[in-house]
Design goal:
By secondary structure, the protein is of the alpha+beta class. 22% of the residues lie in helices and 28% in strands. Strands 1-2-3-9-4-7 form a six-stranded antiparallel β-sheet, with no helix packed on it. The radius of gyration is 17 Å and the shape is globular. InterPro entries: Cro/C1-type_HTH, Cupin_2, Lambda_DNA-bd_dom_sf, RmlC-like_jellyroll, RmlC_Cupin_sf, TransReg_Diox_bact_type. Keywords: DNA-binding.
């Protein structure tokens, strides 16, 4: 994931776009894009999605190895934990790698007392199965306090955020569309 900034720059140059043109296409500032391409700034999922759309690739492009391979099995010992945009929650990608994949299965670990400060909305849908612990989902103006064994499934266009109200880690199975990583 450390090479996302290199892939963004290479793709922009391949498409013969200037930073200014990419800025106009994405709505992201010229200085921010310059920092991203130099690896001097972190990138939110929302910003990465804008860049992917402007550059004509899926978001998974930025997370794939350069070699083209298809795998259908994800072995526990081969998975890597990662964080996004400096957040405290941790993710483990559970998906295979093959073209035209539609689902994004992830294991999500929410640290104790985590509370997202901002709600998000985007295209797609999301399904969560609480494996361990508790989580409060804020969906539009409603709040759902879920415990191990509970599920929630909603359109991603609704404003949503989550929090772990406990002093223990919460572990969640997430399956969403579109592909993010």
């Amino acid at each position: 994931m450390e090479d996302i900034h290199k892939k963004i720059k290479a793709l922009r140059l391949e498409k013969k776009l200037t930073l200014k043109e990419l800025s106009e296409e994405t709505g992201l500032s010229l200085s921010f894009l310059s920092q991203i391409e130099r690896g001097a700034s972190s990138l939110s999922i929302t910003s990465l999605k804008k860049l992917a759309e402007a550059l004509g690739v899926s978001m998974i492009f930025f997370f794939e190895d350069d070699k083209e391979s298809q795998t259908y099995v994800s072995k526990a010992g081969d998975r890597k934990v990662f964080k996004v945009n400096g957040g405290d929650q941790k993710y483990i990608r559970l998906a295979g790698t093959f073209s035209d994949r539609k689902l994004e299965p992830l294991m999500v670990m929410l640290p104790p007392n985590l509370k997202e400060e901002h709600s998000y909305s985007h295209s797609g849908e999301e399904f969560y199965y609480i494996l361990q612990g508790e989580v409060i989902f804020h969906i539009n103006k409603d709040h759902y306090h879920l415990k191990a064994g509970d599920t929630v499934h909603f359109p991603s266009e609704l404003l949503h955020a989550w929090e772990n109200p406990t002093s223990e880690e919460t572990i969640i199975l997430s399956v969403s569309t579109p592909i993010i990583f």
